[in-house]
Amino acid sequence: MSRPRMRTRTRINTPEPRPAAAPADCGSVPQLLRLLHLASPALPIGAFHFSQGLEYAVDAGLVHDEAGALDWIDGIAGAGLATLDLPVLHRLHAAWLADDATAVLRWNQFLLACRETAELREEDRHLGGALLRVLAEFGLDTGIFAARFSGKGAGVAHATAFALACARWQIAPLAALQTYAWAWAENQVLAAVKLVPLGQSAGQRILHALHPRLGVYSIRATEVLDSDIGIATSLQAIASARHETQYSRRFRS
Known about the structure:
Elements: H1 31-39, H2 54-59, H3 66-97, H4 101-113, H5 118-137, H6 158-168, H7 173-195, H8 200-221, H9 234-243
């Protein structure tokens, strides 16, 4: 009688876990990821605190439905964002690339001076100072504005800090303009969804309708002459001024 064969177990050597890859440097990160980061609502700069006069417009009955919200947002985009913020952002981007401190300061002061109410100026300073502090955490310090800038005094505009990030991360000018325009529009739509109020689907329809317009505004902004930079948003200025003393407010003044 033959003895039963003894089965031998084959030992499998599992490889040692590999150490995590080292973080990529700034130059190897795709522009799209950088732009998504800058436009993200999770970026802690507090843009959701401000409505830029939309809260008063809703309270006064100037905006009361989806169509009215689209008209209001696109009107400000076409007569303000496209003719002031985006052209100045384009110049700030070029100034940061050239390390032209004089041009950076000049366009920063110009942009803040164009804010027609104390509320709009304070918003711009708040967003610019907050973004500058976030960028300092990423090592994007600047000798022109202090790394721990408080947002008080003369101030740094949001577009100035935004242009700094785009220039240092080598983001193309047009992509920077489109991203800035999108972030602005998204914040306005979110405010409209809360204030009118609108459903989430209505908010998405408004953003979808704004897509081609924001693209056109961004392209036009690269062609605007210095002498043609300005705004024609008088109704927004009135709404923002009245919002400063509005009895009940959900958004910051």
